[in-house]
Amino acid sequence: MSPGTARSPVVPALRSARAVVFDTDGVLTDSARVHAAAWKEAFDAWLTALPRDTTATARTTTGATTGATTGATTGATDDSAGIGAAARRPFDAAEDYRRYVDGRSRLDGAAAFLAARGLPADRAAVEAVAADKERRFTERLRARPVAAYPGSVRLLRALRGAGVPMAAASASRHAREVLAGAGLLELFDALVDGVEAARLGLPGKPDPALFLEAARRLGVPPGRCALVEDALAGVEAGRRGGFAPVVGVDRAAGAGGAGTGAGTPTARALRRHGADLVVADLAELLAGREGEPA
User: Fold this and answer.
1) Are residues 134 and 277 in the same domain?
2) Residue 9 and residue 3: Cα distance in Å, rounded?
3) Which residue, of 51, 95, 260, 294, has the greatest Cβ tally within 10 A?
4) Separation CA 26–CA 19 (nearest Å)
5) Residue 202 burial by CB count (10 A; 0-12/13-18/19+): exposed, middle or buried?
6) For the residues 184-213, what does the mean pLDDT come to?
7) 293 pLDDT above the threshold of 50
8) Res. 43: pLDDT tops 50
9) What CA–CA distance (Å, rounded) separates 226 from 130?
């Protein structure tokens, strides 16, 4: 994995890869937290404004990620009012974000969450929630640039120094702005963001199209590209696309040695969706930690 040097900068698990594709939010920068906060404000405002008799009319199975429902049912009974109250419970910025929104495009994320609650998920509803989230996120981003994770910066600079090709890939239309604000944009050989995905008509994660386009721009087949991702939909996309290895990032596990995230619920979910290994911080992928030979 070190075209420019005889000494590999990374742990053995990554050394078979000739290039690396990175997700951005939550992997390179602390922007996932900002996205989650903006989604919570947008969803909670939408949920609060729903009529009291809104009920699940087409899909009530928790975890549904696609599909639409009809409008709110009128003349709801006492039983259906109870269902409506449950559907209006506040958006969980941790669990709901991870299950339905993280890694997806704004429209896909909005549709997935509304459908999972059995709420109206017609195009107008989805676009309204997504637009509100976009406004709230942009306001936060303009007020304060998002910081890069120090461990991620260390890994990126080590790979750049070793001449390893790198691409950033994100469903977010703000990826370029976020990376530039964090001082990371110049480290990448290619960037495929939400703007490019829309221009090319690429489907969203868990479809691997976004990552495959990044690998294509690097000129390296996906089987020789490592993929680093923190979202369940993203690691699934990496598995579907044949990336090797697929590295899951579990920030909730906290700092520590390699494998810290192996036993957490999030880490187990990342592995189920396709991660070959899970780390709590990208610095764990650098050689030389705790006696690891380079």
Assistant:
1) no
2) 11
3) 260
4) 20
5) buried
6) 96
7) no
8) yes
9) 31
What single-letter DSSP state applies at residue 10?
B
Confidence check: pLDDT of 65 > 60 = no
User: Are 181 and 269 contained in the same domain?
Assistant: yes
Are 126 and 99 in the same domain? yes
The pair of three-digit structure tokens given for residue 251, joined into one six-digit string: 């920030």
pLDDT at 22 exceeding the cut of 70: yes
Could you give the 3-state DSSP secondary structure of residue 110? helix
pLDDT at 213: 98
CATH code at 156? 3.40.50.1000
Cis peptide before 222 (omega within 30 of 0): no
Cis peptide before 203 (omega within 30 of 0): no
H-run or E-run covering 247: strand 246-249
Digit-coded pLDDT (tens) for 89-104: 999 999 999 899 988 8
Higher pLDDT pick, 218 / 64? 218
Task: Kindly write down the DSSP assignment for every residue of 23-64, as one continuous string.
Answer: --BTTTBTHHHHHHHHHHHHHHHHHHHS-TT----S---TT-
Positions marked catalytic:
23, 25
Name the burial class of residue 152, with classes exposed (0-12), middle (13-18) and buried (19+) by CB atoms within 10 angstroms of its CB: buried
Answering whether pTM is above 0.85, one says no
Domain limits at 153? 12-30+146-291
